[in-house]
Design brief:
Chain lengths: 59, 298
């Protein structure tokens, strides 16, 4: 998978709680659940991070 | 041949007598992502007809979902649906129909069969367990352009939980690149995966049952938002079945209004159950009706 960007989404009703990653993967913008074992997009993001990339903090 | 002899020859060697097929959407009756009845250019590692992924190496290709028109030559079950991949470039490569199966079949002997039509003498079926160096191939199609039933039996690792891969591919017997010319194709019908060493007659499945199985991996659902403090729209989507894992969410389309993407839940304790809450990602934007794709595919 080609990951172009990744940024955490926070729960606006629970400040500081990360709920998902907004990512552009293979040119598609998607919302990927965090800590989702078996989710292939989450696993691709983890691999991308292990390669030295960083998930941007939430706005 | 007597009826008793036919029955004996078609009995499974392992597993139950009914509901034997471990593959999903083998009748190609479900295509939630779109209509591919016209030849459609494909991307590598991408799902089209439900549960069936396309993988390409070296070549470009089209997919076509053919409904009920596979009578000749030699095909025994007229009216079945088929899935066809056709190369649109010439190169050394691999062309694959692939279904990945959850890895709960430790140490079991499995038989993978399908009717295959191809003009390539490198069209084969393959069984493979992720992380293994051993990919087992069926005999090759003759490449004569007729329907031929291919079968491969293998026993999977007794301890690994890794996913299982079942390919109908144009590839060498060792799964290496082969010469593929533009126009080379591999078309498949009635793929079946079952316990034991016997390939038994294809099981037709009610479309509703197949849809429910597919929705464990992929679903679409609509959304009509309602206004609520603090200036957010929110609603709940009840997914039709529990999905395999927490799904990835993409916006399928915004049918009325406009605005930012929706965030998908404010309750992080929710997992992959059927209830899903949404709220508007940006205050006071005007989404009022939209639909979404839920992806928990392998």
């Amino acid at each position: 998978m080609n990951i172009k960007s990744a940024q955490y989404l926070e729960d606006e009703f629970k400040e500081g709680t990360k709920i998902a990653v907004k990512a552009t993967i293979d040119d598609v913008e998607m919302t990927v659940p965090i800590d989702a074992e078996g989710n292939r997009h989450w696993e691709a993001i983890q691999k991308w991070v292990a390669e030295g990339n960083t998930i941007a903090e939430a706005d | 041949m007597s009826n008793a002899r036919k029955l004996a020859d078609n009995l499974p060697t392992d597993g139950q007598l009914g509901d034997r097929n471990l593959l999903i959407n083998s009748g190609f009756s479900i295509s939630q992502r779109g209509d591919y009845t016209s030849a459609t250019s494909v991307s590598n590692d991408t799902y089209y007809v439900d549960r069936w992924k396309v993988r390409l190496s070296g070549v470009s290709a089209n997919i076509q979902h053919i409904k009920g028109s596979n009578a000749s030559p030699n095909y025994p079950n007229i009216g079945s649906n088929t899935l066809k991949l056709t190369a649109t470039s010439t190169a050394s490569g691999i062309l694959r129909h692939l279904q990945q199966v959850e890895g709960f079949l430790k140490g079991r002997e499995l038989t993978f069969s399908a009717w295959v039509k191809s003009n390539s003498s490198d069209a084969r079926l393959f069984q493979y367990q992720h992380g293994s160096s051993n990919r087992v191939a069926s005999s090759a199609h003759t490449g004569g352009g007729g329907w031929e039933k291919l079968i491969v039996t293998a026993t999977n690792n007794a301890t690994s939980n890794n996913q299982l891969y079942f390919d109908a591919a144009i590839a060498s017997s060792s799964f290496a690149n082969v010469s593929i010319a533009s126009g080379d194709y591999i078309e498949i019908a009635e793929p079946q995966l079952e316990f034991g060493s016997q390939s038994t007659p294809f099981e037709n499945e009610p479309v509703g049952v197949t849809l429910s199985k597919c929705q464990r991996y992929y679903a679409e659902a609509g959304f009509v938002a309602s206004d609520s403090a603090p200036s957010r729209y929110y609603n709940t989507i009840n997914l039709p079945v529990e999905m395999r894992t927490k799904p990835t969410l993409t916006t399928g389309g915004i049918d009325s209004g406009s605005g930012a993407a929706l965030n998908w839940t404010w309750d992080n304790t929710e997992t992959f159950n059927s209830k899903r809450n949404f709220y508007q990602g940006t205050a006071n934007s005007v989404i009022s009706s939209a639909w979404f794709k839920f992806d928990a595919e392998l």
